[in-house]
């Protein structure tokens, strides 16, 4: 897969608590949370543990879930050791590809999207309070975008002793475009705008356009994205 990465502190935050990774068929976006740079530490630990655990392994659901559990346990233990880090955690959106399949693991409100045949679809469900309210019909998706508690996530890596990750599997298709991103992008840029940016333009131009749009709308959060293009064939990168 061809990969383009962008991460930006945004316009109002002083530190970037998102973390991003790309290598050997594995792509990660993590959005850390917690005071005093604890979020940055949590997101960095998630990337370190997952990339280490999955290196040189063949993609499989059990291996992926056990690596997620390991990352969760390591962050949770680290948070318990220092009072300043108490409650730290991170979202995780992971994409892991072999020759024929893509696995996605999801915790929190970062997202994976797939553009296939000109149609964009969100492949993950947000683990957030507003997403639950939308699912049970209490509020509309439009109301969710401006809801005062729109940043409240219901699952995170490292905040509890155990974590329940969603896993999705897809068959790869040549020319598929995948987007992994933190909520600093999706809170500023609509799905229609994401679809427009991903359609047609070269990958790097699409990534630049999405980042510029998020910044132009205010950039009130850290903005991170991994954009992938499936070139087909057996190679991972
Ligand atoms: Mn965020």
TrEMBL record:
InterPro entries: PP2C (IPR015655), PPM-type-like_dom_sf (IPR036457), PPM-type_phosphatase-like_dom (IPR001932)
Molecular functions per Gene Ontology: protein serine/threonine phosphatase activity
Limits of the PPM-type phosphatase domain: 2-230
PANTHER family (alphabetical): PROTEIN PHOSPHATASE
NCBIfam families, alphabetized: Stp1_PP2C_phos
Entry protein name: Stp1/IreP family PP2C-type Ser/Thr phosphatase
């Amino acid at each position: 897969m061809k990969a383009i990465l962008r991460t930006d502190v945004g316009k109002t935050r002083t530190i970037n608590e998102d973390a991003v990774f790309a290598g050997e068929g594995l792509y990660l976006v993590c959005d850390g949370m917690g005071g005093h740079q604890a979020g940055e530490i949590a997101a960095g630990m998630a990337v370190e543990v997952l990339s280490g655990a999955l290196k040189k392994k063949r993609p499989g659901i059990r291996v992926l879930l056990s690596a997620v559990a390991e990352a969760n346990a390591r962050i949770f233990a680290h948070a318990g050791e220092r009072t300043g880090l108490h409650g730290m955690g991170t979202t995780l959106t992971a994409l892991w590809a072999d020759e024929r399949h893509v696995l996605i693991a999801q915790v929190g409100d970062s997202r994976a999207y797939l553009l296939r045949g000109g149609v964009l679809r969100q492949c993950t469900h947000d683990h957030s309070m507003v997403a639950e309210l939308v699912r049970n019909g209490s509020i509309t998706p439009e109301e969710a975008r401006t809801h005062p508690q729109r940043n409240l996530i219901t699952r995170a890596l490292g905040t509890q002793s155990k974590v329940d990750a969603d896993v999705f599997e897809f068959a790869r298709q040549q020319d598929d475009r995948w987007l992994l991103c933190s909520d600093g992008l999706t809170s500023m840029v609509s799905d229609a705008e994401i679809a427009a940016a991903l359609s047609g333009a070269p990958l790097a131009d699409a990534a630049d356009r999405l980042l510029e749009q998020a910044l132009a709308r205010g950039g009130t959060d850290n903005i991170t994205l991994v954009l992938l293009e499936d070139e087909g064939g057996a190679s991972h990168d």
